[in-house]
UniProtKB/TrEMBL annotation:
Keyword Metal-binding appears in the UniProt entry: yes
Organism: Lupinus angustifolius (Narrow-leaved blue lupine)
Protein name (Swiss-Prot/TrEMBL): Cytochrome b5 heme-binding domain-containing protein
A molecular function GO annotation: metal ion binding
Domain of life: Eukaryota
One term under GO cellular component: membrane
Entry-linked PROSITE patterns: CYTOCHROME_B5_1, CYTOCHROME_B5_2
SUPFAM superfamilies: Cytochrome b5-like heme/steroid binding domain
Length: 125
């Protein structure tokens, strides 16, 4: 049955990344795991390292059991407002464009300078 729940942005969740106040985002859901940190079999450091971002891949890579997944529902506090992820994706594609531009600038400059030097050298002969 659908229930009303709070929505948080990834920026909201990123404000809670200490041992005293720790939220994680897994599969579009936000969990306040502050009280669970000391009991986590994988240690508190792995959970703290998974704060401030989408921790779904880290959580899945650890191969959590069914009972771990049931347990985590106790710490559910709200849904992730996914509209806040769109600018992040846009930024990362903009970053890729910047990287491609930089990647091509250096070899293009080397080829350009070589052509000019070669041309001048041949003209001198
Ligand atoms: C509410 C969130 C979480 C709960 C309730 C939880 C619960 C558990 C439980 C019960 C185990 C024991 C093995 C199992 O039953 O699967 C475990 C192991 C583990 N967890 Fe989590 N976990 C959570 C989040 C995370 C996150 C975000 C990470 C990030 C990497 C993580 C990393 C690990 C690792 C590496 C182990 C393996 C420990 C070992 O086998 O030595 N867990 N977790």
């Amino acid at each position: 049955m659908p229930t009303l729940s709070d929505f948080y942005t990834i920026q909201d969740a990123s404000q809670h990344k200490t041992k005293e106040d720790c939220w994680i985002v897994i599969d579009g859901k936000v969990y306040d795991v502050t009280q669970y940190l000391d009991d986590h079999p994988g240690g508190d450091d792995v959970i703290l390292a998974a704060t401030g971002k989408d921790a779904t891949d880290d959580f899945e890579d650890a191969g959590h059991s069914k009972s771990a997944r049931e347990l985590m529902e106790q710490y559910f506090i709200g849904e992730l407002d996914t509209s806040t992820l769109i600018p992040a994706e846009k930024n990362s594609s903009e970053n890729s464009v910047q990287l491609i531009k930089q990647y091509w600038a250096v070899p293009a400059a080397v080829v350009g300078i070589s052509v000019v030097v070669g041309f001048l050298y041949l003209r001198k002969k």
